[in-house]
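tool_log.txt
---
The assistant was asked to compare two proteins side by side. It first ran the structure predictor on the initial sequence, then on the second. Raw inputs and outputs are pasted verbatim so the downstream comparison step can read them without reformatting.
(1)
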Amino acid sequence: MDLIKMRAEIEKFYHDTALPGEQLPQPKKSDAFIIGIQKNQIYFMDGKNTYVQYDALEQVDFNGPEIKNQEWRAQLCRFGWMRSCAEAYLQTGDEIYVKAMRDTVEAWLRFRPTKPDDEIDRSYYLFDSTLSTGIRLMAWWNSIPYCADSPYIDKDFLDRVYTSTLAQLKWLEKHNAKKGNFKVFELKSMLFLGCVLPGCEGVLPYVSRTIGEAFRMQVEEDGSHEEHTMGYHNAMREDFTHFAIMAQNRPSLGIQIDGKRLAKMYEYSLAAMAPDGRRWGIGDDSRWHLDVEPTDRAEFLARYQKLRAFLQLPPLTGELESKFPCAGQYFFQDEKTKICLDATHFGGSHFHPARGAITCYHGDAMLLIDPGSLNYERTDPFCMAGRSTPLHNTIVINGFSQCHGNDARIAWVDENENVAAFQCVYDGGYTNYRPGRSPWDTLATAKSICGKHVRTFVWIKGKFGFCVDYVEAFAPSYHVASHYQLLNCPYHFDKEIKTIFTCRDTYNLHITSPWSSFKTEAVLYEGDQEQMLGFIAAEFGGLTGGTPAPLFSIEGNVKGATTQCCILTPFEGKDVPTVQVKTQSIDMSLHFEVKWRGETYLIAASVPFLQDDAYHTSVGYKGPLVADGPLAILGDDLSYGYHITYVQRKEDEKK
C-alpha cells in the first residue's frame, strides 16, 4: 500500500470538499491527548480532565469498564487521539506517538478480530455503534498515512488494518443508520474511504445516492436540520456543504444537494447565535457560556456569501430570516436584547420538551437561560433532569414534563420595529415518562395528566416583555408552576412581591409576577438535588453535569383553569425598574394598567383569545381600553394590536 500516494488522495479529497481558497483541514492536536499518551493515559473528553491510566496502551479494553458513561465507551471506539498523535509526530518526529497509534489499533484488532469474508454480527457491537465505526475508520485512515516513515507502520500491520477496514466498511454500508446525524456522519466516512482507500470504491454508488436522499429527508423547508438542535444542525450544515462542493468538483459522483435549501441552513445558524456569537443552548447543545469560543459573525457571513457565489445563487440582500416554523424556533431582536421563543418540534433523542419557553440575551449575557445539555449518561440524574420541562422557562404541571412527541402550535407571531408578539399553544399533556430515555424498565410507574398551556407574549422593544399564561388540566386539582431559569450570577429575590432580578455590574434582568387568577407564591430553587431544580450545565454542556443557578417559580395548587402574568424587564447596572400593575376583568376581557418607569401602558385581551378558544371575540368597548380585535396595547408613544382596526382609551372615545 502506497501511503504517500494515499496521503495525496486525502489532501485532494479535502481540496474538493472546500471552497476555493479555504484552508484544508489537517490533523489536529489535542494537548490533553498528547500529554496523556506519553504516560499511557487516555483522556475522556468530559470537560473535567478525566483520564484512564493503563500499564500499556495495548491493554485498552474497548468495553470501557473504567468509567460509567456511555460516551466514554463511544470515545474509546472512535480513536479520537489518532489525529493528535499524527500531528505530534509530524511536528516532532517522536516515535512514541506512532507507537501509541499502533498499540491502540492492535488492541482493537484483538478486541474485534475479523477476516476478509466475515459478516460482522450487529449484536457483536455491544458498545460500538455504526456512528462510532464510521468515525473510527476516518480516524485511522486520516492518521496512518501521515506516519508512513515510521517503522511502526509496517506491511504486516497495514495488511491487518486494511483487512479489518474492509470488513467494517461492508458492515457499515449494510447497517447505515436510517435517520439523523448518525446517517450523515456515516455517509461522510464511507465517501472518504471510497475516494481515498484503494479497494473501497464499490461503496460510492450507494453513498452518492443516499447523501441526496438524506439531505431531502432531513433538511426542512426553513433550513433547519430535523433534530432542531444547533450543535447537530451546524455539524450537518458543514457536512452537507462539503457534499455540495464535492458535487460540483466531482460531478461523476452524482451527488445531489439543493443549493437554495442548503443556504437556508446558514440563515438558521445565524439566527440561533446569541449576539456575541455564542450558542443559544436549545436541546442537547452547549448552553451560553463565556468559555465557549464565539463564532465571528462577520467571517461566517463572508463565508456564506462565498458559498452562495460558488453555488451560483444571487448575493445575499435584505434581512436574514429569524422565524423557523419547521424547527419551532423564533428569534426577535433589538439593539441590546434578543429573545427566543422555544416551541421546538420533536426531533428525536436530542430534543428537550420546553414548548413555550422564553430565553433572553441582554447586553452581554444570556440572563434568562436554557440549561443546555447536562449529560448523555442515563444513569446520571442530570441526564433526565436536563431533558425535562421543569428546568426550562415554561409552565410545569405536577412537576411533569411535556409529552415528548406532541408539538406545540404557534397560533400567531408578529414583529415590527416597536413590538414583537406571539401566542404559543401546547395542548399535548404532561407525563413523568419519556420513551427511550426514562430510567424505568416498564410503564408501571408512569403518571400523566391531560393539560393545556397557552402563552401570549408581547415584547415592547427597548422596554419590557408582558407574558400571560393560561393553563388548564383535566383533574380535580393540580399543581402549576411558571419557571424562569436565570444565569448563575448574583441576584436579589423578594418572596413577598414575587420578584427577582440579577445583580451584575453591566446588564441585568428583572422578573415580577404582579397578578394571577389563583393563589400563588414565589419560590426560589437553586441546586435543589431532591427536586432537581435550579441547575444549568456545569460548563458549556455535554457531559459536565449541573451547576446551581437560581430558578424563579410562581406556583400554586389549582382547581379548574387559571391565568397568570409576568413582566420581564432587561435593564443596565443598578437601574432597577419599578413596575406596578392593576388588573380588571370586564365583559370577557382582561384589562391591565401597567405603570413602568413612570410610563403607563394599557393592555387588554379577550379571555377566549388568551385561552385559544374556538370563539373569536374582541376586547370590546366596556373597559378602559376599547378595541375591535382580541389584543390591544396603548402607551404614550405606542399603539399596537392583533387583528384590530381601532384602539383607543375609553376616556378619549367620549371626548
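(2)
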Amino acid sequence: MDHIYWVGIRKSDLLSLEYLYQGSITFFGDEKDGNICLFKKGVARKNHNVELDIFAEFNKEAMERILSKDPEANFMFYNPILAYSLEDHLRKKVICLNSLDILKIIDDKMLCKLWLKGSAQQLECVQMFGREISLKAVNRILGNKQEYIIQLPVSSGGTGTYVFNSQNCDAIIKKLLPSQLYTVTPYYKDALSLNMHCVIYENTFQLYPVSVQIIKKENNNLIYRGCDFISCRSLNDNILDKIKKQAESICQRLCQSNYRGVCGIDFLLIDDQIYFCEINPRFQASTIALNLALADQQLSSVNEATINSFFGFEEPMASSYEIDVPYSAYAYEEDNDYKEFHKNIFQVYFSSSKERDILKDGYDFDVCAEQGAYLFRAIFPYSLTDISNGDMRINELLGGYGIETPIEPICLKLMLLTFGVKISSEAICYIEKNGSLRQGNFSAIDIILWDDFIVNCPYGINHAEYSPFTIKMDADRLALYYFQKKITDISIYYESPLNQKKTSGGVAYSSIAFLATDRLRINYNPVCYYKRSKNACKFCNLPETNQPYSFHDIFEIIDDYIQNESFRHILLGGGSSNPDSNFEEIIRLAEYLKRKTEKPLYLMSLPPKDLDIIPKLYEAGISEIAFNIEIFQETWALRYMPGKGKIPRSYYYEALEKAVSLWGHQGNVRSMVILGLEPEKFLLSGIERLCKIGVQPMLSIFRPMESTPLASKLPLPISKTLELYEKIQDICQKYGQIPGPSCPYCQNNTLSLPFS
C-alpha cells in the first residue's frame, strides 16, 4: 500500500521504516523527510503525556494539509484510539483501525482485567472513587499490603499512576479527583515489569520476544523510561513459557473478538510467578528496538505485520524464541537536576554516528523544556539493566545518578572506580609527549588526585566514554573535571620502559611483571589454575593462555626492575595456583627476593591445603599475606566462582586465623571482599567475622569486565554502595580495623581512604 503517513509521538519511531511511509505527523520531530511536527528544533518542549488535546488539534490540521497535497493519503496511528476524535472524513482515511468498542474495553485497565478473568493470572485489584480512597480503606479491602499502586483507568507512560503508602498518602489523596474511578492494586517494589509485542491476524497471531520495561519511581509516580530486550536472556525457560502460555490465551481472546494488528501485553514477574497487568492496543515505545532487530534479520517489521493483518495477508510465523533482539533503549526527559547529565549523554551518543540523528527528534540541548518533557532517546547494543538477582538494576552511567559535585572523598573515589574517566585529545597529546600511559589493574589507569590519594579508573571500557569525569588540560597541567567543573589538578603514572622488554629467553616482561603505583607485582603463575581447568571465576578477565616461562625468566626480570626502577614493595600474585600446591615455587621465589632486596614482600594466594605451610611462608620472609575469600555465602560463591568457590568458607577462616597468629592483627593479614555479588546480610556478617579474628577486609567493588560471563551484570548503585561502606566502617571500628589495605598506594582499586 502506498501513500501511508505515520501519526505518532516521535519521528524516531520510523527508524528502519523510512521506506514504508511517505511522511509523518508527530509530537516531536525534525521536519525532514516529510515530517510535520508540533515540537520541532528550537521550540520549547512540553510533556506529551499531559498535552494530548493540543496534539489532537494539531493532528487534524496536519492531516488536512497533507490531504490537500496528496488526496490518496492514508494515515496509520501509533495509538489508534486517538483516531476516534477525528471528524468522519478524516477518520475514513485512517488504516489499521479496530472498532471503538473493543478498543475501549482493552484500553481501560479495569474493564480489560474483567474481560480476561479466567484467561490470565492476575493480582488482586479493586476499583474505587477518588473520594473513597484512604490508606485505612485500601488496607481493609486488600489486606494490609501497606503499599499500593493507584492508576487512572486509561493512562500511559506513568502519568496518572501513583505509589501510595503511609508516607505520602495525604499528598496523593489531594491529587485524586473525587468522582474519578481509579484501580488500586498491591505494589511489589521488586517486581519486574515485562512487555511482549503481539500482532493479531484473523486466524492466528505472532508473538515477539519479551523485554524488560525500565520504570523509575519519581516523585511518587512510576515513569516508563525505556526497554531492555537483552537482559531478558537471563530469564529461565520456565518463566518464558509461563509468559508465552498467558500471551497465547490473551491473543486467542483478541482473535475471537475481531481485534487486529499490534498490541503490547504487560506482565509482572513476582517470585517466579507471572501476573497479567494490561493490554496496550497500540504500538509500544519499545517497538523501535524490536523493529531494528527485525530489519537486521530481514524479517517484516511490526508495522508491516500490522498492515498485513488488516488486509488479510497472513505471514509465515516466526517463533519468539527464534528472533533475537540485541538492543535496549532509553528515553531522556527533562529534569532540572540532570541538565549536565543529559548534555553529556547527548554529546557523546550523537557524536559517534550521524545515522543516530533521527533519535534526536529535533532536540538540541539549548532548547527549553518543561519538567518531564521528552528530550531524545538512545538505542544501545548492550543491556541497560541487570535482572539476574530477581530485581532490576539500571545502568546509572546511562540512566542517571545523583549529580551534585562529589566533594566527599569516598564518594568521589567510588564514582571514579565505577564510572571511570575519559581523556580529552589535548590531554592525550600532553601525555604522549611525556611518555606512555601506564595501564593499571583491570583495563584502567591510576590517577593521583592529592598526596597519597590514588584511584584506579576504568578507561576505554564499561562505557567510560559516558563518564561525567574527564581529564583535561588546565594551563600546562592535567586536571580532573566533573562535567564542566574542575575538581583538582592530577598526575598520572607513566609506563616503565622495562614493560616493552623481553628476557634473554624471549619472554615479554609484561607476561610476568606489572608495575602499579609503588608496587611491583610478580605473576609466579603463568595461567590461573581455574582458567586452565575451565572452571574460572565468572568475573575474572585474566587470559586463558600465556607465554610459558621459567624461574630463570622471573629472576632476570626481578633483577632488572630492582636495578632500574623505583618501587616500595613487591606483590606475589595474579591467578590461582593449583589448590593442592605445596607452595614450593612461592617459597623459592620469596627466598630469592629476600637475598636481592629488603623491600617488603606481600603474598596474595589461595589458602594452602596444608596449614603447616603458612609458618614456612612467614619464615621465608613474607611480610604481608592475603587469602581472598571474595564471596562469603557458599551458594553465591559457587554461583560466581565455580572452581574457587568449592574451597569451604570455613577453611578460609581457619587459614586466616593461623596467619593472624603469626603476622598479628594490625593489617598484615587481609582478605579481599567483592561488593555487589551477594546479599547484604551475608556480606556484613562475613566482614564482621573477618574483623573479629583480626583480619583486615579489603573492599573491591564489582566491576563488569568485557568478555566475561558477568560482562552485562551491573555494579551496585552508588548510593547503595555508600550505605554499605558506612555500615562496614562501623563494623571495622568496633574491632579496631579499617577497610584495607593500609598502604595508601595499594588502595588504588579498593573502597578505602588513605586518611581513614
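---
observation on (2): The longest helix spans residues 237-256. The two ends are 71 Å apart (CA to CA).
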